[in-house]
């Protein structure tokens, strides 16, 4: 086929068209590029939706993981991706993250660090900035809520006990778990992490709201400071 000749997905045999394959066999048989092509919906004068999807996934060897790290502005800078396609892809990725973090409306009882990281890992592992959150627990160690405290490199000036415990008191929390991410992907604690943790643990003991743990989330892995006897 010459480079000047254009074609569309409709030119493909019916069994090779992503949407028709999904109708007939279900989504599990589709490749990542075919699923992405369905989200993108349409191609342009140069490429089909499948080719645009393949190009997107080939930009970085991390594939889908790479796409989760892109902002709206970064998507629109990619050839073949305008505002509409960028919005569609970001919406699908955000839904996937929220589904991974969803507990189905049931209260989660925290018995180990993995109970918390199971909720927050997919949301926090790809973040490009450090986000500090607190998990609020009731007297039965059930999750009341998860609240954002700060965004930025973790230090004592950003994570102030006033903000942390003001929220915990308002929500009648019996205890809290601290959680933040390392954009580098390495969850090992820094000196500042330990310093902030110690300060919040001390304040919690005075107020009567225990800090049970501080979890640091990396890329698919985490560190529990309690398990390392640092809390």
Assign the CATH superfamily of the largest domain.
Cytidine Deaminase, domain 2
Order of helices and strands: HHHHHHHEEHEHEE
**Main beta sheet: strand number and arrangement?**
5 strands, mixed
Q: Report, as a whole number of angstroms, the end-to-end distance.
A: 65 Å
Please state the second-level CATH architecture of the largest domain: 3-Layer(aba) Sandwich
Describe the oligomeric state of these chains in a short phrase.
Answer: single chain
> Per the principal axes of the C-alpha atoms, what is the gross shape?
elongated
The total of helices stands at 9
Strand runs, count: 5
Mean pLDDT: 87
Low confidence ranges: 1-5
Write out the strand line-up for the largest beta sheet, numbering strands in chain order: 2-1-3-4-5
Helix content: 40-55%
Percent in strands: 5-15%
Whole-number total of structural domains: 2
Return the CATH class of the largest domain.
Alpha Beta
CA radius of gyration? 22 Å
Description:
With 231 residues, the chain is of the alpha+beta class. The chain has two domains: 9-101, DNA polymerase, domain 1, CATH 1.10.150; 113-224, Cytidine Deaminase, domain 2 (3-Layer(aba) Sandwich), CATH 3.40.140. It is 41% helix and 15% strand. It has nine helices and five strands, in the order αααααααββαβαββ. A five-stranded mixed beta sheet has the order 2-1-3-4-5, with helices on both faces. A hairpin with a 5-residue loop joins strand 1 and strand 2 (143-151). Helix 6 (83-101) packs antiparallel against helix 7 (113-124).
